[in-house]
Amino acid sequence: MDFLEKIYLDNTIGQWLTVAGVILLALLLKKYVSRYLASLLYRMVYKTWKSVDKKSFVDLLLAPLQWFVLTLIAVFSIDKLNFPSALFFNLYRINTQLIFERTGITVIVLVFTWLQLRLIDFISLVLESKASLTEDKSDDQLIVFFRDFLKVILGIIGFLLLLKFTFGQNIGNLLTGLSIVGAALALAAKESLENIIASFIIFFDKPFKTGDDLTIQSITGNVERIGLRSTKIRTADKTLVSVPNKQMVDSIVDNLSMRTERRDSIIIELSQKTNSSDVKKAIETIKSNLQQLSPALISNAVYLKEITKTGLQIHIEYLTSITPVVQIESLKQNIQLQIKEILEELKIELSFAADKVN
Asked: Which string of b and e fits 26-65 if b means at least 16 CB within 10 Å?
């Protein structure tokens, strides 16, 4: 017992061992304690969302909850010890004891913020699973947007808590000071603020949504993500283009996915040797066959467009109810094969001067 009463670094060995034992016990039991706490939180969440999966909830919160419990116990245990005078010295205007205390508070705030971020992730996952059951994809992108927005707000709150408890700053005075320099900050971050405001306009006006095919200026592709600052568009070349949201709002956006019909055309050039009766027959046969080719074809027009020095130009124009590019190209291929078969049956030749069927 005398050994435990010996003083070492301004604390008895018994005190050092007690603190070390508590921290070691917390380290060994953190997983079980955290899982139990996560289960308690799950019961509270389950009252609101009956469809919440317990395993997903616990797995998402377990890691930050473990570190939060361990950090909390370690900081409060070490706080019971007397700070060793041998380690006490001043550094400029602060001392080492204050550095240790504020480091502990910083770790607690950071781990707690991490825990809150995981909660936001879980809530967004629950909402996304419900939103996936609906056909409208705008609610999916709205969830992702507000998830990122809440994370930014939470990060700002965490930063203010650090200023308050770690650096001892008065948040009220700080906010007052920020309001004074707010105009300068707004000017400095003018572009970022404009993009954030534009993102709200996109979500509430809904000119497009995630998954839509669109064209803006010279960019054509599929919208993969709408963020706070920019919209990510995947092009046909599989490159990912980031377009600032302000530009998405200010520019003319052609939403290809909103088309109810799609117009396409094919131009063939017949030989000058083709007589008028064969031309008429070819036009009538092509038009008749197109009407029976696919139910997706809404209407079509086949006519002799122009007589040139090189041949006779026949235009085939049609409207289709399908919009996916792959299906459009497949339909166009079938139409061209049908035209080729008709020309072969009628023994009509294409113009030798024409490079290809347009």
From this structure: beeebeebbbebbeebbeebeeeeeebeeeebbebbbebb
Contact 58, 33 (CB under 8 A): no
> Could you give the angle at which helices 325-345 and 276-293 cross, rounded to 10 degrees?
140
| Residue pLDDT, tens place only, 295-315 | 888 888 898 988 888 889 999
**R_g of the chain, CA atoms, integer Å:** 35
Beta strand ranges found along the chain (DSSP E): 7-8, 11-12, 90-91, 94-95, 213-216, 219-226, 230-235, 240-244, 253-255, 262-270, 297-307, 312-320
Question: Is residue 140 within 8 Å of 131, Cβ to Cβ?
Answer: yes
Structural domains of the chain in order of their starting residue, each with its CATH number: 7-180 (no CATH), 205-258 (2.30.30.60), 262-345 (3.30.70.100)
DSSP letter assigned to residue 351 = P
Residue type, 133: L
Distance in angstroms (rounded) separating the CA atoms of residues 199 and 247 = 10
The residue among 190, 121, 106 whose CA lies nearest residue 154 is 121
Mean pLDDT of the chain: 81
Per-residue pLDDT reduced to its tens digit, 271-295: 888 888 999 999 999 998 888 888 8
31 Cα distance to chain centroid: 32
In sequence order, the β-bridge partners of residue 350 are 270
Is the pTM higher than 0.70? The answer reads no
